């Protein structure tokens, strides 16, 4: 069993998620390449030390640059706020480390391109944390599409909705500042683009409208401060195959907690999925007796790999964190030269480019060819 | 008990639906004004006679103009294909009859305007068959919105999907010809506009994209014939109140049979509805203990009038045809000078105007102010 | 077109439902035998007159016996409280009328047997208002079972739950008195037995437990009064085919409004249905690729007759009242000598016998062979 | 940070699940007591060595007794087939180890009692793998019940259904032999009893009926062999509080994959849950405007601890394996003397006693007081 040394920067939402996944992957998947948790970094040195113990990292540091020089670290997980991605990723690549960076790549397109350039120069592998594509049900959809089970794809609809920005009484935060990006579009909307990519549904043209549900929010002193980002974005799309569709993004959608609703209409059937019920897939096939036709709700099970690596019994439910474990297992496959389902910086820049095109189409209020 | 004489033109899908509703309304609602089924018209005289017996009409005719001169006929139901609406409606109005016409008003905007002009001149009442607005659950939504239960409306999403045009092997029919109109947009999309109107959600700007899933269909001889209408239409909308949204229309959506999915996101909550489960309403309110928050699925019942006129027990389900009975009861209220929830030609022309604006925005590929 | 004269006793929940159905059936189904609404009876003469006008009956009376002598009345609908069924049904049969009586037959088994005896002597036809068996989805289930689509039936589970007796603060009413019967078992539980009968699933043995959620209720004066009926009944069953199952009845089930949940497990698949979503049927077939297996949710449509007589488009939803129209259309078929799906007094007495056996098994706390 | 040495016997379904949980718990929960994975045992020495590397155990053995003498092992996870539980658990306790044993305790009641006796003598702690009680939604239900949110519990219905024994063509296996126990009742039905216990709903009387859907199965040679276990069990229950209910168990239920459907009806509301959608909870409260009443579907989130330890965002879904991590975190709490939600041998024997009473009531076909 070979080992690969892991460095992790960040201990928040995604930091913990990465740590758990790196820790779990060998137990779940076995495999020849075993991750070794070498170093954990976060600005607060004490916190780094405490979390390193919890997460099982051998060393910790308050200075993430410490891991650049550490020969035991072969890959660096970057889970800090987006604005830090470029500096960290480029430094890591220049230090000869593989990079596993949370999405999106960077707040600006220029920085994302710098990251890609660094990746190309380094010869190292890069991976982006588009974990929703790892759901076995999403792979099942890809299998169905590739096999033509619903015929030609005529229309696709994607909705991604959460409500963490829905409360108008919540204070102005970094997410309302232009420095954080456009808003829903890049903050979480990139996930929907990764899904289309994973399903091999490429966009040809886009027309986007972004909106601010609340024009101002109160700052800590109770003064009104203008909101600079768009909590809602809606995109008309034309697909490269002649089909069409929509992407609707809303992080102010009261009641929606983790919704990524997908509808794919084809010439022979259709597919419906919702991330809030991530272990279910609904498939309609226009064949046979009309009296027997309807959507079939398939529960995730061992017939949908790699569900079987987690649980041998069907219908017992994977969870959100399990998707990260699958993502990490794909990374290990990639590092061993095997084919893997992942989005690297080359693919990631395509997503970032889509974001730019969408934002531009919003500004110009017209269709943009991507 | 006063009587109102009813003439009905057409015996197809909507013809039967009107007949059943005119026949049932007095039993369900009681009320002072009792409809009397006077005359049924359809081109085939024998069919007219047979259906008149089944539906309970006293007389029948193969020539609809016969009812214009009949003093016993006070209101005429027009349920023929759209292309006949203008001639019939105008003639009826000129003959001093009230007109109850199926939606949409006419294949062309000019004709619709003629119909409106005739209505204005006549002094008679007009009604359009936008039956989905009559669902007690839809009225409940209006009540919730008016009471501010979900706060300001920030975003509305409407999807109307059926699959009667989904099979590429189906022959070219009148619905694929330009004479029938634009396609999904006016054929059934107007229903979604009536719902927004009924909910008092007015549009300010629209941007529409229409699409043909199948460029050609075989005619009766097996030869390819170009499809001239758009089975799909997707519309970005800006609301007059500053909110935004989408309308998505697809009559080639395999698996969808009678879907009209509505999502309304507000500053204090949200509402979700689907016509395929027309007796259910989902309401989320952002208040109280977060551990207890979620969508509440309300089953239609006597607390949602006029459900109570049909069934005293809750959760026992109204059906599609019952909506038409409610529509007719509203017509009777209007004819007696009471306030009623209906869309007349004045409101109908607004919908037709929206259709025109959407079609124009599709052509110009840009936003149109409505 | 032949005519059949209808007399209706009662103008409440079921009285109105019968009236609407008798009025609608010819319009919906056409057919040779046309019902003529001859006379409406209810104790209050003025109410009878008013409702007769609303419902379209030619005559009205405060004395139901008036219709016995009326030669224009050929069939009598009995929709009064259960305690009046025996006297009315027997008198009607003796007067040479067909009888259409709401379920259950009678408060006591002896009376039900008298009714059956009267029916046998009369040579007239009898029909019981078990309308849930008329749902096209229920017929679809029967078709699937008969065709062996889910193999041998191994287990059936039926739950019927409403909450009209759920509030402990509600006053003692007739439903809490022993004179009304056992409680949930006969009050509405008989519906579940009619469904099993309609699906040809015959019971061989039963073991029933009845329960009182509230031992007392306050009377109009605020004094505690003992509750004599059982709002809950749970029955273990053995089927004649060797299978087994349960029937669970609860009229104090907060949140349930019209639930009749059916699960049928077979050797090759299973079927799941819920009356609260009466236009949906869920079917699982254990065949083909495990990765594609799941419950298929079928929406009621024209492929499920007689849905097509109401609406030509699928997924548009029948309602509860439509089931009564189907029931009446079956009665008309039966009266014309055609095969019909109905429960007459012969079959009804089987259901009443099951109720007796269940009540007895409750008393003896052991299995009873039926 | 103190350490606790873990020994694990078994590498199958539950073996892997325990290993993953022991490995993950510190990362997810932090906490002072850190598990150290000391030794893994399974009969096949090579397999033990390979899995030990995957799962992160320091040592491995083909002889589980090796861990009894190992002073670094403080607690032993037993995940072997039920028949091995007694010998292993008793030996472990006698060797001074804490015991964490998968459910049920033992194939026979006598053996289970021996296990309990050994536990009492040892002074060591014992834990049983009733992981379903660890779902945050289940804890939420307990909170609601304890707070009286749905009033007095009047009726509870539990269904546990899977289809791993549903195929009549599957060969006779150990699960069809009497040595494995009664069948559905103890094989997986004990889970439902653990849930009632966790919800503090104690049974007073039971009446059980067990059934064999298939009387024989073919052995490896194609010869018919009698099935000795019951794949179905249905139990009527009376609760200690005067309420009543049912437990329905079926491991031959085609289409059901991991269903544990719970319905609790109270005097003020009701609760509905299904393990196949383990991140959802449905609560009905009979209060306020009837027009607004319905089941509220709550998505699991940080407001339902310890969901927050896994994911900070609501509606993102825990999975089945996460429940085991929670279980292990409770074990660590217990070992540190804190209050924990677990079922030990003392509580476990109550469940085993219930199984005995149910089996006896099946045999005698009558109610048994428990």
Structure description:
- Chains A, B, C, D: It holds the Pfam family GFO_IDH_MocA_C3.
- Chains A, B, C, D: This is Myo-inositol 2-dehydrogenase.
- Four copies of one chain form a homotetramer.
- Chain A has 370 residues and is of the alpha/beta class.
- Chain A folds into two domains: 2-124, NAD(P)-binding Rossmann-like Domain (Rossmann fold); 132-369, Dihydrodipicolinate Reductase, domain 2.
- Helix content of chain A is 32%, strand content 26%.
- Chain A has ten helices and 17 strands.
- Chain A has helices at residues 13-29, 45-55, 85-94, 109-122, 136-146, 184-187, 189-198, 307-310, 320-335, 345-364; strands spanning 2-9, 33-41, 59-61, 75-78, 98-101, 126-128, 153-161, 203-211, 216-218, 224-226, 232-239, 244-250, 259-266, 269-274, 280-285, 295-299, 368-369.
- In chain A, the strands form three sheets. The first copy, chain A, has a nine-stranded mixed beta sheet with strand order 16-15-14-13-7-12-11-8-17.
- In chain A, strand 11 (232-239) and strand 12 form a beta hairpin.
- Chain A binds chain B through residues 150, 154-155, 157, 159, 163, 166-168, 207, 209, 211, 213-214, 232, 234, 236, 238, 244-246, 248, 250, 252-256, 265-270, 272, 284, 286, 293-295, 365-367, and chain B through 150, 154-155, 157, 159, 163, 166-168, 207, 209, 211, 213-214, 232, 234, 236, 238, 243-246, 248, 250, 252-256, 265-270, 272, 284, 286, 293-295, 365-367.
């Amino acid at each position: 069993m070979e080992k690969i040394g892991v460095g992790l920067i960040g201990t928040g939402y995604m930091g913990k998620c990465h740590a758990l996944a790196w820790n779990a992957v060998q137990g779940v998947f076995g495999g020849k390449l075993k991750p070794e948790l070498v170093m954990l970094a976060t600005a607060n040195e004490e916190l780094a030390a405490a979390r390193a113990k919890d997460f099982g990292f051998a060393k910790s540091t308050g200075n993430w640059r410490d891991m650049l020089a550490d020969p035991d670290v072969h890959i660096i997980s970057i889970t800090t706020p987006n604005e830090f991605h470029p500096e960290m990723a480029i430094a890591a690549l220049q230090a000869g480390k593989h990079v596993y960076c949370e999405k999106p790549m960077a707040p600006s397109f220029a920085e994302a391109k710098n990251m890609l350039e660094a990746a190309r120069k380094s010869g190292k592998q890069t991976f982006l944390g588009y974990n929703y594509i790892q759901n076995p049900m999403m792979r099942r959809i890809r299998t169905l599409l590739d096999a033509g089970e619903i015929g030609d794809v005529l229309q696709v609809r994607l909705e991604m909705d959460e409500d963490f920005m829905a409360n108008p009484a919540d204070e102005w935060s970094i997410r309302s500042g232009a420095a954080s990006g456009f808003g829903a579009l890049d903050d979480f909307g990139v996930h929907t683009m990764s899904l289309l990519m994973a399903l091999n549904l490429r966009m040809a043209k886009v027309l986007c409208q972004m909106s601010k549900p609340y024009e101002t929010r109160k700052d800590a002193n109770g003064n009104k401060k203008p909101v600079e980002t768009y909590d809602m974005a809606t995109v008309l799309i034309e697909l490269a195959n002649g089909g069409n569709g929509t992407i609707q993004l809303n992080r102010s959608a009261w009641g929606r907690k983790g919704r990524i609703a997908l509808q794919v209409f084809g010439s022979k059937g259709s597919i419906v999925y919702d991330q809030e019920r991530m272990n279910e897939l609904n498939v309609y096939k226009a064949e046979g007796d009309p009296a027997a036709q309807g959507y079939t709700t398939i529960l995730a099970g061992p017939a949908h790999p790699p569900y079987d690596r987690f649980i041998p019994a069907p219908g017992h439910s994977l969870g959100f964190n399990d998707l990260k474990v699958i993502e990490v297992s794909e990374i290990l496959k990639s590092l061993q030269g095997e084919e893997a389902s992942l989005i690297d910086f080359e693919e990631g820049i395509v997503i970032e480019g889509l974001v730019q095109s969408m934002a531009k189409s919003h500004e110009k209020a017209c269709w943009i060819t991507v």
